[in-house]
Amino acid sequence: MSTSQTAVHRGIVKQVLSGDAVVIRGQPKGGPPPEKTICFSNITAPRMARRPNPAQDNVETKDEPFAWEAREYLRKKLIGKDVAFVIEYTVPGTGREYGCVYLGKDTSGENITEALVSEGLVEVRRGGIRADDPGQQQLIQLEDVAKSAGKGKWNTEEAAKHIRNVKWTVENPRNFVDSHHNKPIDAVIEHVRDGCTVRAFLLPSFDYVTIMLSGIKCPMFKQDDSGKQVPETFTEEAKYFTEVRLLQRDVQIILEGVSNQNLLGTVIHPNGNIAELLLREGFARCVDWSMGVVTQGADKLRAAEKIAKEKKARVWKDYSPSGPTVDIKDKAFTGKVVEVVNGDALVVKTADNKFKKVFLASVRPPRNTTPADSTESSPSKGRGRPLYDVPYMFEAREFLRKKLIGKKVNVQVDYIQPANNNFPEKNCCTVTISGINVGEALVGKGLASVVRYRQEDDQRSEHYDELLAAEARAQKKGVGMHSKKDAPTHKVADVSGDPNKCKQFLPFLQRAGKSEAIVEFVASGSRLRLYLPRETCLMTFLISGIECPRGARPLPGGQMTTSEPYGDEALQFTKEMCLQREVEVRVETMDKGGNFIGWLFVENTNLSVALVEEGLAKVHFTAERSNYFKQLQIAEENARRNKLNLWKDYKEAPETEEVVEDTTERNVSYKSIVVTEVTDDLKFFAQLVDNGPQLEKLMEQLRQDMEANPPLPGAYTPKRNDTCAAKFSQDNEWYRAKIEKVDGSKVTVLYVDYGNREQTTTTCLATLPASFQTLAPQATEYCLACVTLPPDEDFKADGVDAFYDGVANRQLSMNVEYKSGGLEYVSLTYLDSKDDVAQKLISSGFLLAEKRREKRLAKLVSDYMKAQEKAKSSRENMWRYGDFTDDDAKEFGYSR
After folding, report:
1. What value, to the nearest 5°, has the Cα angle with vertex 275 and ends 273 and 276?
2. Entry pTM
3. Where in the sequence is the domain holding 243, given as residue range(s)?
4. Residue 24 belongs to a domain with what CATH number?
5. Span 676-695, pLDDT tens digits
6. 180-200: buried (b, 16+ CB within 10 Å) or exposed (e) per residue?
């Protein structure tokens, strides 16, 4: 041995090799900090287990008792701590250095050798103890005390319990990962191979595992042609970064996946996720192949990488964005979806009435897998229709259409794809509705795939990892495009422009009455292309009863025709109202060109009436023969009066006193009725008293039938306009009802015998036996004649409430005064007092009198006007603040 050295050195403990040896890292001076292995003088620790080494003897050894406890005692006390140490001697030949280590920055701190001896974790080598050295004699005394107390290894009875059963290999990595269910496992990091690969003992099982950090990759050591390990740029720095934070630290590991028998996982230190820290400092990159298994915080990893890119830190020192940047003011917006383009693009109308086409970021719609030179015939002969021919494209479009059309969505622009190969620039976005990522939902249903990118391409969805996870779930479930079953086919008959085919379909469509359809395309305000799901056919449909201007349209030569005045506005109005919505059509006839003609309804709104009401169409003379002529006339009068669009320059003819020759007398024919329901617009439903016994008998028989043959819940499939049996929520009894709207499991019904509406579920509906459909609906809708509600919302509500209180569930006398828009306007009187209901409400200041010119109604109108003057003078209800009709007389139907 060499002579004793008394110089005091300082450093930080990097690693504990055993119970009597540590690695100490010195202070760095421009380069990597120097390291020194120090063995403790005069003691021997129990030897730790050694794994088989094929390069040597390939023999596995076991722990000596308390070897792990001695190592752990030092690890918990020293790792990462400042220490002072004195090298006492160096062994010639091996160069191994022995000395004494003190906790702290000088030798006044705790003597680690003495601490180990006191705990009974090591044995003093008494052969080398000098009698004249009080420090060494102190070790003998401490050991004697530990022996007498039976501490540590001197407790021979407990020795067998302090030998680890180390499992050096994992037989089935996949099952091993699955058995831990993505739950955090306590572990100690034993070795850092590189910045993103570590070896660790899992506790308390002592499984020895190699973990590759999920979702990232650091610069690594590569083998050159001569077999030498050569580090990539920043390899050493990345390894050092991980080493000083994790080596021999208590951590938690989440096992997440397997790659080529290597375990993938996340290592969580008390100060955070090491992968996130590596990314933030520019020591690592995100990798897609393992990002998909990250169970928590994948978005944080991407965000950390983004920070490093912006700072151009280390591996990103030469970074430049792979595409154009998105202007912050255009980064996010909200709007209403007006069109779904195939399975990956939407047209959104923004708050400032602009239309933006956006593509779902990193999502690829279904594609035709049939080779271009394939001899297989397309399901749709003639011109190609990808929507119906490409497998799952129709299902993808329908999924988005049903979820989004007409709904408000939030749009976040992720990246802009530049124009190339004659394709225009694309705004690629994340679209969400009620917090749900539309692209992720589409991919999760197996109706789209996720785009794969080059590693350096950062032009991708900010939720790319969620998309990959959704695709993995879809593949595991085997849904949509990932199903092993044959893809659904759509054999669609296109009868557009084919008079012969149209003639075959016409009788069937005429007999069907209203047919359900989806608007696939809008060519002009009154010309649409429809898909009828039940008949699986495409048709061109022309709107009846109106004359609508046409917008600009392409000609065969590629030129465009000029738009007729307000043609483009009519086109846009119809598109917003109808495009890709479920509608009902009533086909009346067809023209010579193979186009069907009829009426189209969107949620019970007649499109012809709506266009006329907006001044975007005029009533055509052919409408006189229809049931909607009166509605069209009223709509046109309103548009003309308000000078809307086509009527912008309309000038009314000079007013002349019109003498209405009305020699007819007021027809008085009272019927006894019971009012069963009142609506918010002063309309009401009533039953004829004479039909009461018949209705009661029918209801009793219906309930007996339902009780004797209870329907199977959910067996009935509701369809709009069907008549069914419905269980009323208030009394749990069955009634006849008409289905007005179906929205998933929620169904809106009208109880046809009482006039009230209710939203119920499919489980409360049943098929109505034919024997109960012979009696006509007993509740008829009426409206009070010669009166109107006040314009103020509060007064209007008061008027409706007063009317309801006066007539609900009471027997009254009713006389029909006139008809308008298919609705009968009536007067009501009480049976006992013979008082006119409307007159009493007017005189109480709840309703306004409506001045009408029919001579036969003159007496009735006069009585109502007198009642109104009385209410004014008495300041009743709506008149309590004075006469408000002076400035707005025309608005309420008065002329001065």
Report:
1. 70
2. 0.60
3. 173-316
4. 2.40.50.90
5. 999 888 899 999 988 888 88
6. eeeeebebbbeebbbbbbbeb
